[in-house]
Amino acid sequence: MALETEAKNPSAATTATTAATATKAKENNNTVGGKKNQNPNQQNQNLVNGNGTAADGAAAKKKGKKNRNKSPPEPATESTETALSNGHAEKAAVEGDADSNANVAADGGEKPEGAVASGGGQAETEDIDLDALHDVSITVNISSPGADNLLVQLSSMELVQEIHQLLMDREETCHRTCFSLQLDNVTLDHFAELKTIEHLEQGSTIKVVEEPYTMREARIHVRHVRDLLKNLDPADAYNGIDCNSLTYLNTITQGDLLDKKKTRPDSVDCTPPEYVTPGVYEPPLLPLHPNVKNAKGPQALKVLTTSAWNPPPGPRKLHGDLMYLYVVTMEDKRFHISACSKGFYINQSTDDTFNPKPENPSHLSHSLIDLLSHISPSFRRAFQTIQKRRTMRHAFERVATPYQVYQWASPVLEHTVDAIRAEDAFSSKLGYEEHIPGQTRDWNEELQTTRELPRKTLPERLLRERAIFKVHGDFVTAATRGAMAVIDGNVLAINPGEDSKMQMFIWNNIFFSLGFDVRDHYKELGGDAAAFVAPRYDLHGVRVYNAVDIEGLYTLGTVVIDYRGYRVTAQSIIPGILEREQEQSVVYGSIDFGKTVLSHPKYLDLLRQAGKHLKILPHAVLNERDEPVELCSSVECKGIIGNDGRHYILDLLRTFPPDVNFLKLQDVQLSKELVDMGFPIEHRHKLCCLRQELLEAFIEDRYVSFIRIAAVHLQQLNATKQSEKSDEEKPVPALEGAVKDAKENGAEKPKEATEDNKEEKKEQSTAGTTKSAEAMVNAIREAQSNVATSNEVQAAEVVKRACAAVGSLKEKEFDFRFNPDVFSPGIRHVDGEEGTCSSLAKQKVLVQDAAEFLVVKQIPAFIKEHLAHASPPIDGQSLTESLHSHGINVRYLGKVIKLLAQMPRMDYLYRIAILELIVRATKHIYYTYMQNTEPLHLSAAISHFLNCLLTNGPVNPAVSSEEAHKKRGNGGKHNKHKSSKSGKGQQQQQQQSTGGNQNGNSSGTGSTASVASDWTLVTPRSLWQQIRREAKAYWDWDLDCDSMESATTKFGILRISLLRAFCLKVGIQVLLREYNFESKHKPTFGSDDIVNVFPVVKHISPRATDAYNFYTTGQAKIQQGMFKEGYELISEALNLLNNVFGAMHQENGSCLRMLARLSYLLGDAQDALAIQQRAVIMSERVNGIDHPSTILEYTHLSLYSFANGHVGMSLKLLYRARYLMVLICGEDHPEVALIDSNISLILHALGEYELSLRFIEHALKLNLKYFGNKAMHVAVSYHLMARTQSCMGDFRSALNNEKETYSIYKSQLGEKHEKTRDSAECLRLLTQQAVLLQRKMNDIYSNGKLTTDLPPIHITPPSMGSVLDMLNTINGILFVQISQKDIVKVRSEIEKHFKANNAENEVNDAIKSIVAAANNNGEIEGEVPKEDATATATQITNGEEAPAASS
Fold it and tell me: pTM for this one?
């Protein structure tokens, strides 16, 4: 019974938790048909299947009616097929084979090996496969003892065990775990699909039959009971256990939004809490976790544990006793319970006497819950309450997340007696999960076998991707657990005799090593600093080779974990590598940085295929015998053939070329521009590489120049040719050849440019690098047709000239690939002849050019892109992601900050960037600080560090330095990884990093004792000096702050934001309470305020390629204005994602957000609300409760709930979003302006004019600051102010504000525009009212009373409809139905506009964005949608790119 293990170990490897995932998939079955894996090999199915917990089924079923997405009523399967084939048809022109779309690998549009096989004529089979995945639903009765018959609708593809899961989740049957299902007295096989069972038809009755317990089943049952009882307790989420995490949506909306009745506006309590009103300085911390008090639910039992009388002695075993339990009920009665094969009964044992006979009268029940309900009335009541609350929760609140999410703040959790928890922590099963019979898991075998699964058809690919994802998730969990055990000293080293830094560990078939420079391996490259970053670069390498997915080339499972100041690398183990020395096993590459080099034909072949995608140039180096050896990767990359015959590559830390801006090299002269900017900066280590995104952007940029130059030359040729036209019209092979080669070596999709007006669709958002591509392409096309008449030699000449101009490696074709070893010290290259691609000089220049491109082009492009504030970064993490997408490494942050400092309109980004820089500098210092701390004093040391960082009050360390010294005396056994050689390692490192010892005094070598107590000597002043030195040394940026005070006054950084960012960055969990940072008398943080330390885990995330393709095709449809088709494709993508990732995943969240947006646009607000609610819960659970994307989801949800008439709710949601924004980055942020405009509008609708005015004034201030005084945002803000003021009767101010609106519209849109006319009408009405009011006032003033009967003044409160229209406008949502004709018109207008302006944006991009905006789903790049519906209708007519309001 593989199934019940789920109850035991939710994050377990096997278990058929398909129930969870399957029922979930059914929920998301947007009529397009849920897909399940068809899997002939069922035993394996169970291993590979989903990762939801048992909890999901029933609730999902119950919510079925509510949750099912209503897709437009078309025959579903057909519509999908047509959409799909459309998707292909569009691409067909480009790629030339019908099904390219299904197989473009996720990475930058390159095709993986396997895809080639399944390219060509597969379109037909693909569509059939889609059909095969659609299942039949069947309704059966389930009768269980002591409960009513249950009617259940199942899918013919589900397995029998999914019914088990379902029953264990239903309220009435959840207490059974040990039962079988029978149909006509035949027991059903667990792993059979329902469609394979004979005699099973509509309306059959399946009986639940109680089975006798075994020892294992009894333990599973007890564990399941314990899980049911602590179901509501958030302790696991705070402790970071079993992939539990928090969600507060239903706390904030006080119950399920979808069950709410519409609220009447007058019954809404809408006063915002103190900390939400504009002008808040330091937001409080407590509201981050609302409702902490009563989250737990009622207590059902005081104690439920295994008894100390276990295991049953021999005689009792023969009577069938399996185990003994001990229970203390809420009534304070104590019971000893025996479990036997028939069930559970109370025995006569007491705490000191053993008497296993049943008590009189004996009561035996098959389920422990029934027995407990029988003996304790309060248990019965509490259990019912817990069950009610459990089933009321949303299904998404109960599924496990794919990876653990850690909370940075936690309330005080009471520690209860829990034998099962204790057993989990200390049992011998540290290394293996119980339900895989008889052995630990062979991670390497599992990881590699899943990659070898077939991938020809859609079901095969789904199965493969699901298996890869599942095994990878389990591996990350196991590796994290192992790394913590290693640092906590819980694992014996495999070389226990060596110095603690050199130790290596094996636990659970995973190999662990520490990030120190062992055996001077990295001596030349920067010692410990290099050893610390190497694992991260290695992980990058593993990621890109995995993404390319070459069949036959294997990488190791790799996870990098930072915990308690140490960096641990966890890797799967190559079979056989432990039996022999490394020298013997390496057949390719070098183990000594290039002194001895080996090569191997099979590796060359595999790496050459990968190198095509990764732009790695095959090159030759000399070995120790001066023979040339060919390599297709960097020298460090080692190839080892395992005992399993697989070809593994490892040490991929130099996959990409070095970054010369951060290397001091003798023979390299950087351009003057770079030297002026302070390059080259000498970095701490010599491992700096350029990012893959940068290389792609660079090549694309060069390709565009190449085409442009070729076009110019061709036009000149034509001009001379025109006079002497030749008769024979023969095509020019040379030119075609060049373009063809270019396709293979250089740019991703050059053919697109010439054959199909689409300039490369940018994977990385490097828009803005190309000028009026359209015109260029036309020129080329024309030129080509003309050249067809000219001769071959001239065409070849043209190509040659263009190649030389852009610096191509080859003379006669466009070829850009990089040699990663070109600047590596100690490597002797074989230099080719001048001007060929093996010429070293040429390769060096290319690498330098790429590094220069980063500084000169990419950094300005990054800043330019954010000038529009379309999707502004909110915290350091989103800033980092945005930099990376442009190929900019974080070590350039100092340069980015220097540029931002000169732009007042980028003030918020400047602040976020500085905050990130401070946090990162502090992290470097904190890690060395932590390594020098005794485990005894961890909480004292961490709280002391936080005091020094965040306060300038008193900081007296909780432990005096003498005490710390004293403890050090006894040989220092406690801290295993402390360097024993008088702390020399650390001190050298400190001297490099801080130019002195840690305390800031320069005493070079101290005794070990002084190193240990180092932390007691840190003061706020010394810490901030270190931070400044670090900022200068690492980022070449002068941070002129010497305390937290000066940082807040100078940059406006909030302490609470810094605390949050730092805790998340290094894995600290602080106590949830209000911290007084200004405290003058006692330290802000005490040692009790540090609740826990968490690991910070870095790993790769497997992709779902088919889902990704559906998603992008869907986006393309939406951008063409075909919402219904888009909706269907994206629903289909969501189905596939559910199939691969299970119910919970970040990408599922992006899909849900998109679907909600589409439903709203298609006019179904109710549906939008239901889908968006799931998106919010998912974001809270998967990203974190205060993650930037959670804020975005909240704002969307508030709009949809307003549209559904839940006015009060939408306000509460906005208040939450605003609070989180301010907590993360303060009030000064363009996104806050949008939230404030929304709040103001809704308050206005509720008649709370004063409050409304405060919010809109704040929004106006921010809009003026970030968009300038002529922007549409500002016009809208002025108009909203005027509306509010007119309602308050303040017509004069209203008039002035509306005048501002009018003047902006008039200058930006012209007199004739409808908006300008609306504004003029508004002005007329206001003037009328103002005049009336004035006349009344004068009358009263002169006569003391009203004499003339003037008409009364009308102040009409706004209608909900008009408020909703306005909300849609400011959130960038327009219900525009654009016809194709209009699009063409818009397109031609824009082209004119662009030619006139010579704007630096690709025409196509502009058109896309504008059409998209009209259809409201702003352009979306990369894999995660940033829906910023930019540009409102006003912009469309104007062809401007200034976005009116982003959402």
Answer: 0.80
